[in-house]
Design goal:
Layout lengths: L2 H25 L55 E2 L5 E5 L11 E5 L8 E4 L9 E12 L2 E10 L6 E11 L5 E8 L8 E6 L7 E11 L14 H4 L5 E6 L6 H10 L2 E4 L5 H4 L9 H12 L3 E8 L19 H19 L3 E8 L20 H6 L3 H14 L7 E6 L5 H21 L8 E4 L2 E3 L4 H12 L4 E10 L8 H20 L4 E6 L25 H7 L1 H7 L9 E6 L18 E2 L2 E2 L7 E8 L3 E9 L15 E7 L12 E7 L4 E4 L8 E7 L2 E9 L10 E12 L2 E7 L15 E5 L6
Parallel strand pairs: 11-12, 11-19, 12-13, 13-14, 14-15, 15-16, 16-18, 17-18, 18-19, 20-23, 20-32
Antiparallel strand pairs: 1-4, 2-3, 3-10, 4-9, 5-8, 5-10, 6-7, 6-9, 21-23, 22-31, 23-24, 24-29, 25-26, 25-30, 26-27, 28-29, 30-31, 30-32
Helix pairs in contact: 6-8, 9-10, 11-12, 11-13, 12-13
The chain binds (3S,4R)-3-hydroxy-2-oxopiperidin-4-yl beta-D-xylopyranoside.
Length: 763
């Protein structure tokens, strides 16, 4: 550990002692319920992105015990306190329909223009701090035919607010009235601004009715944290800093206790993003961020800065004209530099590091050697060009070099960096930029560190995380894990088995992090508990909604023991054979297919069990042949995403190396019922021949795939899987495979089964 950290830890220790004393004094006599300070992908909760964050006019609050909430039925011809989040929505009381027989009115929500728009209700007057509330709303979709909708809560106002999804569903107009129900514990009423609202994370214009809104305190009582737990920061004291993402609700009461017990560094979840700090040109709004940063420092923790240059949560004036066209290079560069300089100078060395650029790289780029061609076509890229990133680091470097007494590391931060193609492109980019910088500035780095966000799920292969980590370390930069969470389960439900599988992956990751601790500065979780997470519905964190430790906590504290105790039953790859014969590829099932075994597909990867079918395989000296006979209830290829059309897929690892990423011999072949093909990577298309035949809503597919990387012989083993995608109304409703349950076969060949070639007569 460096002297710097030792000093910081000493300061921290003293601060923790002082704060604990204050805490004891504060907590004395604070035990009347209403008074006790006790305290929220792929569904995402949406912030008010780039919007004005002025509070809606709402009820006055007095700090008195909560008033009684009366179910809002709209029968009195008023909106019951609801108003549009944006102010531009059209909310009307209508007699078009009602959720119950008894009434006749509902609130109609129209004129939404963005995903976060919708009806919102202030609820702070009904909340006793520290208690959990059950929120219920009945919703009926008007348009489009099907849409995701969600019930959410906002805790706090303005830039330091937290936005949490309480319930999410994709519903159809034919479903009629649908109940959305979820709960939230308001441990902190964040300056008395709390709302509940109904929005969509994916549809900006959906319209709907709402009715019968209720908001009731549950009988789960108040909570306290487990103070005797080993602090995570202590367990990793000699390894790296332990961080978390914060919003205003984390800086009071039990949430602050939990934050301080386990962490020594924080990142603001939203408050230091471009839209929060400079919503309009030249108008810097630091108040909310300052309050968070100062509080964190006062509490003896450190701060990391997130984020200066990004394509999301950034106001469009920075890089686009009012009409939406890219600004000129010079104008955009000037805006970017000014933002970087002003923000870095404002926070001075209150931060230990900055994410200068976030998420610049495309997902799974096809040609990572060409990092420039792998860049995301973000508004910054479009206005400035492929050197925008380098320009951002040069601007940031100039500012920090102007303050030799500061020690601020400049980071590049991204997600899905366990994907080997993305990691390779990032590696090439950082290497190229740093190498060229070093020519003029010998021995110096322009990009000091790489942040691996770490938004994982229980199917993430830790081998890939390790490969990327080592790749980045080899660049001579520091690495931090910056936004760690692991999605497990869904719909706010986590089974014991899933909780252990989640713990197992946390343990595997922390074992890897520990082994590479010399090069890792910080590991930051993205949220403390499942209730407040940005991915609340998939339970991704170490503490549950009552702030109690989950198996994931134990896994992090002692990875080796957790791994030893929870070794999952090994799931053997399935085995099947292919006979030697050559079919005609015409969609008609020749007799030769009868001499080879059926490959049943029954590993359903989603909750819904849709289209089924069987496959078969044959081979000859050059090719592999695959037959699918699919039984489907409706044929649909309306989605623009090939994988969301009725289609079949073949996963092939010709040398059966079972690598956790794709090598040259690996490929994914997709054919829809209309014989339209798509390939991953695209280069494998060459030589593939396919034919389909539709009969009613069933279809047959025949495919020939050249075996270019091996010489097929009797007993040759191929990594192999087959899959059916079932689409309905433009979305994929079911996926079934022969071997893989994880759905990661498109990037990880270790999840494939094994196909053995047999039956060739010896010559
Ligand atoms: C998330 C926040 O946690 C949410 O509250 C917000 O609605 C969206 O952004 N990568 C990042 C983070 O770099 O800034 C994102 O944070 C999560 C993904």
């Amino acid at each position: 550990m460096s002297g710097k950290y030792k000093r910081m830890i000493m300061i921290l220790f003293i601060a923790v002692v002082l704060v604990s004393l204050c805490w004891l004094a504060f907590n004395k006599g604070a035990d009347t319920p209403a008074d006790t300070a006790i305290y929220n992908g792929d569904i995402l909760n949406t912030t008010k992105d780039g919007s004005n964050n002025e509070p809606n006019p709402g009820p006055e609050t007095s700090g008195a015990p909560s008033s009684q909430f009366k179910t809002i039925t709209f029968e009195d011809d008023t909106a019951g306190g609801f108003s549009g989040r944006a102010g531009t929505e059209t909310l009307t009381i209508t007699g078009d329909g009602n959720h119950t027989e008894a009434g006749s009115k509902a609130l109609k929500v129209e004129g939404r223009l963005d995903t976060w728009h919708g009806p919102s209700l202030r609820v702070e007057t009904y909340v006793d701090k520290g208690y959990e509330y059950k929120v219920t709303a009945w919703v009926k979709l008007i348009s489009p035919e099907s849409s995701q909708l969600q019930l959410s809560t906002q805790v706090g106002d303005g830039n330091s607010a937290n936005y949490v999804t309480l319930a999410s569903k994709t519903i159809s107009t034919s479903d009629g009235w649908v109940q959305f129900e979820g709960s939230y514990r308001y441990n902190n009423v964040s300056s008395e601004y709390l709302t509940i609202y109904i929005e969509s994370s994916s549809n900006a214009t959906a319209s709907y009715y709402i009715d019968d809104i209720s908001f009731e305190r549950t009988d789960s009582g108040s909570i306290s944290i487990q103070k005797a737990l080993t602090p995570i920061k202590d367990a990793y004291e000699s390894n790296f800093l332990i961080g978390n993402a914060i919003s205003a609700e984390d800086l009071e009461g039990v949430r602050l206790e939990l934050l301080k017990l386990h962490h020594n560094v924080a990142t603001t979840g939203n408050a230091m993003k471009p839209d929060a700090l400079q919503p309009t040109k030249g108008n810097f709004t630091f108040t909310a961020a300052d309050a968070l940063v100062d509080k964190i420092l006062d509490e003896g923790m450190m701060m990391h800065g997130h984020v200066l240059v990004w394509h999301q949560q950034s106001p469009s004036w920075m890089n686009k004209t009012a009409a939406g066209a890219p600004l000129s290079r010079d104008e955009a560069l000037a805006n970017m530099r000014d933002h970087i300089k002003t923000v870095i100078e404002h926070f001075e060395d209150k931060v230990i590091s900055w994410d200068v650029v976030n998420e610049a790289m495309n997902d799974n780029p096809t040609n990572p050697t060409d990092w420039k061609a792998s860049l995301r076509q973000s508004p910054w890229y479009e206005a400035i060009g492929d050197d925008y990133l380098e320009q951002a680091y040069l601007a940031a470097r100039e500012v920090v070099d102007g303050h030799p007494d500061w020690n601020i590391k400049l980071y590049y931060n991204d997600y899905n960096e366990d994907n080997q193609n993305k990691a390779q492109a990032i590696y090439n980019m950082v290497k190229d930029i740093n190498d060229r910088y070093a020519v003029k500035h010998p021995g110096k780095l322009l990009i000091d560190g790489i942040g691996m966000q770490g938004h994982y799920n229980i199917n993430t292969n830790p081998d890939n995380v390790k490969l990327s980590l080592e790749k980045f370390i080899s660049l001579g930069v520091e690495v931090s894990i910056t936004e760690l969470d692991i999605q497990a389960g869904n719909n706010f439900v986590l089974s014991e088995k899933q909780a252990n599988a989640q713990g197992y992956l946390y343990a595997q990751l922390f074992k890897i992090f520990k082994e590479h601790a010399a090069n890792i500065t910080r590991v930051t979780f993205w949220g403390m508990d499942d209730n407040t997470s940005w991915r609340a519905s998939s339970n991704p964190l170490l503490f549950d909604k009552d702030l109690q430790a989950k198996p994931a906590y134990d896994a992090v504290i002692n990875p080796e023991a957790f791994i030893a105790d929870h070794e999952p039953e090994s799931t053997e790859a399935k085995q099947v054979t292919a006979a030697f014969a050559h079919p005609t590829i015409d969609g008609i099932v020749d007799d030769v297919w009868s001499g080879t075994p059926e490959i049943p597909m029954n590993q359903y990867q989603m909750a819904w069990k849709g289209a089924t079918g069987v496959a078969k395989a044959l081979w000859d000296n050059e090719n592999l042949y695959v037959l699918f006979q699919v039984s489907d209830a409706q044929l649909d290829k309306t989605s623009t995403n090939a994988w969301e059309q009725d289609s079949v897929e073949i996963f092939l690892d010709q040398n059966n190396a079972k690598t956790s990423f794709y090598q040259d011999d690996d490929g994914q072949y997709r054919i829809n019922f209309d014989n339209e093909t798509s390939f991953n990577p695209t280069s494998i298309a060459n030589g593939v021949i396919s034919a389909t035949k539709v009969s009613g809503t069933n279809y047959t597919v025949e495919v020939m795939i050249p075996l270019k990387y091996i010489t097929p012989m009797n007993n040759t083993k191929l990594g192999f899987d087959v899959q059916i995608n079932d689409a309905k109304a433009g979305t994929r409703q079911s996926v079934v495979a022969w071997n893989d349950l994880t759905g990661t076969g498109y990037l990880d060949t270790s999840v494939f089964g094994v196909l053995t070639l047999i039956g060739k007569a010896t010559d």
